[in-house]
């Protein structure tokens, strides 16, 4: 029997950073995001010996250990170790181990929430195997605790909830422990039009979000006025972006993204790079209405609202600068888990 789960990656339209402590605990956070048709997958298969074998198919990382000697956190697949610690059975009574295969359709540091989506998918596969019933909030909360508390990866809260719930969501955070996910009822024609005019561009390099987030947290912890004011502005723009989407004012939505990007850059000097600035300025010059880098910034993916008649020129210019335009579509589903019984292999008859 195979147990499998997938969780979608996401685009962060507005409010990213306001879900970071201490800001979220002192002033509350607000984010607007949507999931796309790129996924993280986790596949679990039982084995007869008492070995746990983990393979990352896209990162060429691996891990093997005995169920009787769980490994420490040492930088190798620590997030997956955290999932196993939280959701593993009582190994003493277990008759065998497991094989766990991982795959993500975007690299870590992409700005699309890939790491959190992989944790959510792994939780889904393990829960499917163990027949655990977890609601979407429980999955998201558990993923956050594994990443932030157990493993100690710095970051916010939005990625886990986006991967668990799916779709277009306005997510409110009263603090680190209180989240409310508001699914947005956007007209299908508005989603289709947004999707048609959206360019998703890989900037040519991934980045470690940890350094960016650490500088933002430092600014917030020291109550630096420019950083706090920028975060306050991000929340205001998030509400404006939500209203523009719900009313189908996509040009206004794109212009709000432009303001959002300007405010985001005020939260840390590491949010942008000279190459990202050049790409964005050139795209704007050629007709893009607005856009921003997804996630913490510093690299990864950029998304742009680009009217159809200027798309060829924008795409060609970005390619010359080292970018890569990739296809995308929005998806309404969050994490999905299922089991599968492969057909027995038939022995060819002679």
Write up this protein.
- The chain is of the alpha+beta class and 350 residues long.
- The chain has a single domain (2-336), classed as Ribosomal Protein S5, domain 2.
- Helices cover 40% and strands 25% of the residues.
- The chain contains eleven helices and twelve strands.
- The strands form two sheets. Strands 1, 2, 3, 4, 5, 6, 7 and 12 form an eight-stranded mixed β-sheet that branches.
- A hairpin with a 2-residue loop joins strand 6 (168-175) and strand 7 (178-183).
- Helix 2 packs across helix 4 (136-151), helix 3 (114-130) packs across helix 4 (136-151) and helix 4 runs antiparallel to helix 5 (158-165).
- The longest helix has 22 residues, at 225-246.
- The chain is globular, with a radius of gyration of 21 Å.
- The mean pLDDT is 92.
């Amino acid at each position: 029997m195979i147990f499998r789960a997938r969780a979608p990656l996401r685009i962060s339209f507005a409010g990213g950073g306001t879900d970071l402590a201490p800001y979220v605990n002192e002033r509350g956070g607000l984010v607007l995001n949507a999931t796309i048709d790129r996924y993280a997958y986790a596949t679990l298969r039982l084995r007869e010996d008492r070995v746990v074998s983990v393979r990352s198919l896209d990162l060429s990382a691996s891990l093997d250990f005995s169920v009787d000697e769980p490994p420490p956190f040492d930088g190798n697949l620590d997030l997956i170790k955290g999932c196993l610690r939280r959701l593993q059975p009582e190994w003493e009574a277990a008759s065998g181990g497991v094989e766990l295969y991982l795959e993500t359709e975007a690299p870590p540091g992409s700005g699309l929430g890939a790491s959190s989506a992989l944790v959510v998918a792994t939780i889904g596969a393990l829960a499917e195997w163990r027949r655990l019933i977890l609601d979407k909030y429980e999955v998201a909360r558990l993923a956050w605790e594994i990443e932030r508390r157990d493993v100690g990866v710095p970051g916010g809260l939005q990625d886990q909830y986006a991967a668990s719930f799916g779709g277009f969501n306005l997510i409110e955070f009263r603090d680190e422990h209180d989240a409310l996910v508001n699914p947005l009822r956007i007209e299908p024609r508005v989603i289709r039009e947004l999707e048609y005019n959206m360019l998703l561009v890989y900037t040519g390099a991934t980045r470690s979000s940890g350094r960016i987030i650490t500088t933002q947290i430092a600014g917030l912890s020291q109550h630096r006025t420019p950083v706090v004011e920028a975060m306050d502005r991000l929340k205001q723009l998030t509400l404006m972006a939500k209203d523009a989407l719900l009313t189908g004012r996509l040009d206004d939505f794109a212009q709000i993204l432009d303001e959002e990007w300007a405010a985001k850059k005020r939260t840390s000097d590491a949010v942008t790079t000279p190459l990202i600035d050049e790409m964005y300025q050139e795209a704007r010059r050629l007709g893009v209405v607005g856009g921003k880098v997804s996630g913490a910034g510093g690299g990864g993916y950029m998304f742009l609202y680009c009217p159809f008649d200027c798309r060829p020129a924008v795409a060609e210019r970005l390619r010359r600068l080292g970018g890569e335009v990739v296809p995308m579509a929005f998806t309404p589903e969050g994490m999905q888990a299922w089991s599968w019984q492969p057909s027995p292999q038939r022995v060819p008859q002679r």
